[in-house]
Amino acid sequence: MYPAGFYPPKNQMVRNAPPVPDGLGIRPPNGPAFNVPARPGAVPYAWTVGSPSTGLVNGYPESSTSTMPAAKSLNASVPPMPNPGAAFPPFPPMQNFPSAPGAQILPPVGPPCRPPLGSSPPKVPTSLTTSGQPQATGIPSASAKCAPKSTSSLDALFASSNLIPDMSQMDLSSRGTSDLLKERHILPPTPVEPPTVVLPPPYDSSEVCIQPDVLRCTLTTVPSSTATLKKARLPLGLVLHPYKDLKKLTILSTSVIVRCRTCRVYINPYVFFPDQQHWRCNLCSRVNTLPEDFYYDPATQTYGDPTRRPEIKNASVEFVAPPEYMARNPPPACYVYVFDVSTAAIETGYLKIFCEKLSAHLSSLPGDTDTLICFIAIDSALHFFSLKSGCRPKHLVVTEVDDYILPCQADVLIVLHKMEKEVREFLEMLPELFESASSPHLAFGSAVSAAHQLIASTGGRITTFLATLPDTGQGSLKNREDPNMRAAKEVQHMSAACDFYKLLALDCTANQVAVDLFVLSERFVDVATVADVSKFTGGYIAHYPSFNICNNPTELVRFADDMDRYLLRKIGFEAVLRIRCSAGFAVHTFFGNHFVRSTDLVVLANVNPDSAMGILLEIDDNVDCRVACFQAALLYTTSHGERRIRVHTICLPTSESIAEIHNGADVQAIIALLARMAADRCLNGGSLQASREALINAVLDSIYAYNMCLSSKQFGRLLCSSSLRLFPLYVLALLKHKAFAHGTSVKLDHRIFEMCNLRIMPLYYLMLDIHPNLYPVHSFSSEEDTPPLLSLSFEKVDRHGIYLMDTGRYLFLYVGQAVSDTLCQSIFGVTSYKEIVGGLVKLPELENVQNKSIRKFIDQLNNARPFALPLRIIKEDSASRELFTSRLVEDRTDSTLSYTEFLQHIQKELQPR
């Protein structure tokens, strides 16, 4: 039965028990109200809204050994700052929102899945490790044992004195130290790569590595104690893209999903096999029995070494879940489309474009033959449509929007497969039906509530389009924007005006319904309030400012391309996500579009591949292991009704050295986490000024902490770890971003959307949004050339050149006014600069090296992402020039500092110490 040399387990096969209540199974929301508890004694990096920011360092009490003077304002662009250590005061313990009396709150699935502190791992029975057994495979037991690190008497003295070891005798260049004031243009010519994780043996396998665009930690060397984290003054957290489209993802269909019986972690590459019958959990150290099925390798279809299993060779895997992971039979995919047909919405012309796109992709929508679809139109009334085979659509109008009566579900919720022809005919006539719409009012809240009630029994996705302020029916709002306050330091009305949309989101989440929101208007629609229905259901939010089918071709192309992606991309229903951490670590706060059910579990009624999240971590106990592991498990239902579990695991070394922690810092992950924290603060009632100060103080904290590693004063120098040399630049770019800029006129809805977008953007696109890539494309000499990255300063822009800027959402092709006629001819096919047509264009296809090279490079940028980027040509003397120059974040403006001035301001604040 078994091959030669293979030793089967002595005892009978022991299969893993089905998931216990603290697992990832969906549970009906019928329990008591549950508030996320504050962890006693926890010292978070986050903030408490409105709390004074004195005597704190990133939310921590200042050490008695040092004090920091109050920051002084350099000019209006850099606000007066409190103690530079007061970066982010602590978060409120309740992560979602205070609910109205009697509101339904989802209950916790169960207690946190971590072993109790102080509990010892179970011992391996001596009878299982006799000399008659074969040698262990995988990680050797002696090297994998997590024992306390040995410390010298000198280290012990430093530890007892609460001091940092003297590093003055070390070679700073070898330690990766940078002097920021000596590097005028600090941006490297190639894209910034994430730092390399160096794991100690035996975890240092080069074959196993999590993809950095799926899961990254802000610190690739993790502090091993709360005290070390305080001294490092850097945020500890994860940036997670759980449902990213992966070209190589191992999907396993096994009879047994192996999990730890104590902490419920999924078996992964970082577990240890003391023998071929057991495995030791890398999170809680429990020794578990391997089921017999785990010896079977599906790749080779043979029995043998368990370390050959795909679960052990891949940091990201997806399991096809067995029936015990299902709380109910998976319902069919269900899509409801809610159209704004008020006067302002019809004027934009969006309805015709969307109906054409939906009709073209109707047969390709994610789902099976039982997929359901429904259409609702709204102005001052609710418009339902009943489609039946062989009959004209029935138009049902409900004018009583405050207390409406729903039509029969069977009449308006139809099976797409059976009625595809009728649906296409309906989509063709829908724009004409409302082309003469004359109602300026909108009952948006009533329409979303009605759509939710129609599909509450099945769950699904509600897609809404909004171009008018909801001013009638349930959830009606008033215009509260003051145009005169757009450039003020303190921006008002960044939080919701009422709780209606939050409470509606609760009901939607309880019934596994997500709401996606597309805003297509330059007018004020109060995104801060209506977006709550998407934020708390795992929904998606998009904004197309000044959208008009006739007057704004840029947004028209972007909207059309986005609809192609939106309608065809993968979708997961009934999703929950749990984060599990090594003993001593815990989740503090989640940032993204979701509902927090318990301290380490969030609910996403829908999950899509274009949304990410951030997770702030805390250390609640000293860590005596050489590595720390974090695992994200996403349980969801596919559009074909299959329950799956996608698991991502990351392993990082731990250290007590401040220098090692700083040298291993991931600056882009830190910026992504800080951006989400700052946006979340503003959207939950915090002030814009406080968020800006927190971002500046984060830079001060990091530089101050690193310089504390140096025993001697470094006068006239601004030293930081080389891994964090771009930190001040990225923070300056974030301060100039539309979400946090002051001194410039930014419409309230635009600002709020940018904040909402920062909370869910994957890291790669978030960095492009904050700090775009700028390429000189006039110097192409062959099609294989890759242009270098340029600093975002006009000093790098030559009037004789042509430059391509990638902002993540748009491509800007900037043409200098003194460009030669030869370049104009070879790239644009015109004889002079004056003949170049600005605006949205497609480059002509010409048979020369420069034209081919630029077109090929643009195609490469487009092919590297799942959506197309609209190209816009910007001439130096055109009115749209500001779109390009406003992204040059290293330059000074009337209300902001240049990069050099920002560094001088940082140095000035650090000098008094």
From TrEMBL:
Residues 257-293 form the Zinc finger Sec23/Sec24-type domain. Residues 330-567 form the Sec23/Sec24 trunk domain. Residues 666-767 form the Sec23/Sec24 helical domain. Residues 112-124 have a biased composition (Pro residues). InterPro entries: ADF-H/Gelsolin-like_dom_sf, Beta-sandwich_Sec23_24, Gelsolin-like_dom, Gelsolin-like_dom_sf, Sec23/24_helical_dom, Sec23/24_helical_dom_sf, Sec23/24_trunk_dom, SEC23_SEC24_subfamily. Residues 572-655 form the Sec23/Sec24 beta-sandwich domain. It comes from the Eukaryota. Residues 126-140 have a biased composition (Polar residues). GO terms for biological process: COPII-coated vesicle cargo loading; intracellular protein transport. It is a peripheral membrane protein. One of its GO terms (cellular component) is COPII vesicle coat. Residues 112-146 are annotated as: Disordered. Gene3D superfamilies: beta-sandwich domain of Sec23/24, Sec23/Sec24 helical domain, Severin, von Willebrand factor, type A domain, Zn-finger domain of Sec23/24. It holds the Pfam family Sec23_helical. Keywords: Cytoplasm, Cytoplasmic vesicle, Endoplasmic reticulum, ER-Golgi transport, Golgi apparatus, Membrane, Protein transport, Transport. It is found in: Cytoplasmic vesicle, COPII-coated vesicle membrane; Endoplasmic reticulum membrane; Golgi apparatus membrane. GO terms for molecular function: SNARE binding; zinc ion binding. Its main location: membrane. Residues 787-858 form the Gelsolin-like domain. Belongs to the SEC23/SEC24 family. SEC24 subfamily. This is Protein transport protein Sec24B. It comes from Trichuris muris.
